[in-house]
Write a structure and sequence with these properties.
The protein is of the alpha/beta class and 217 residues long. It has one domain (2-50, 74-213): Rossmann fold (3-Layer(aba) Sandwich). The chain has a seven-stranded mixed beta sheet with strand order 1-11-9-7-4-5-6, sandwiched between helices. Strands 8-10-12 form a three-stranded parallel beta sheet. The protein has a two-stranded antiparallel sheet with strand order 2-3. It has helices spanning 13-21, 29-48, 84-91, 142-155, 170-179, 208-213; strands at residues 2-5, 53-60, 63-70, 74-80, 98-108, 114-122, 130-134, 137-138, 160-164, 167-169, 184-188, 190-192, 194-195, 201-202.
Length: 217
């Protein structure tokens, strides 16, 4: 698995990540969602550089221009509900992409044990396409593994999978790196070193779904 950390380079992306983390700014849900969309658009631009392109002729009012445009068929998958603003940022860039949605949840057991379940998935065919799976946080990697398995069960095997998680834990990055091959790329903006006993990222950002849409019962 290839890991790309865009936060290692100075850019406006880090401004948006700082605001997404900031406990004061997080109180404004609209701003939080907007920043997530901006982050998604930046990741989309960077991922677009890895797609396949061919030169095409475009008729202008004064002649014909030859422009290299992408030939890659994309599917943008979001983990509900936290991934929706991030996915929207991608959709603002990749106009013709298809979409997939999947709900996952943690089922707690004794002590700190939990198991991740996927109970809803709507997905187009993934065969011969590039899948971009977005989720704001990557804590243990368990949700990502379950989601990838469910999407492939429903839609088949894509040619390449990009996983976009703006904030990830070092543990999850290491775990996925050991399990996933060269057909996977993980894109992050920050890698945090600490996980709590309940598998929350420190310093992280808190619960992205609650910050974007309000606390759930």
């Amino acid at each position: 698995m290839k890991v790309v950390n865009l936060g290692e380079n100075n850019s406006v992306l880090n401004n948006f990540i700082a605001e997404i983390r900031d406990v004061r700014i997080q109180k404004d849900r609209l701003r939080f969602r907007t920043n997530m969309e901006r982050v998604g658009a930046i990741f989309a631009y960077e991922i677009s550089k890895s797609l396949s392109y061919s030169e095409k002729e475009v008729t202008t009012p004064l002649g014909v221009a030859k422009v290299p445009t992408s030939d890659t068929t994309l599917v943008l998958a979001a983990i509900l509900r936290a991934g929706l603003p991030l996915q929207e940022g991608f959709l603002n860039v990749f106009d013709h992409a298809e979409s997939a949605f999947l709900a996952t949840f943690r089922k707690s057991g004794k002590g700190d044990y939990f198991k991740v379940h996927a109970d809803y998935c709507t997905c187009p065919s993934l065969e011969g396409k590039t899948l971009i799976l977005v989720d704001p946080l990557l804590a243990t990697g368990a949700s990502m593994e379950v989601t990838l398995q469910k999407l492939q069960e429903e839609g088949g095997m894509p040619t390449h999978i990009h996983m976009v998680c703006p904030i990830a834990s070092r543990y999850a990055v290491d775990q996925l790196s050991q399990k996933l091959d060269h057909n996977y790329t993980l894109w992050v903006a920050a890698i945090d070193e600490e996980l709590t006993s309940h598998n929350y990222i420190i310093p992280g950002m808190g619960d992205a779904g609650d910050l974007a849409f309000g606390e759930k019962l």
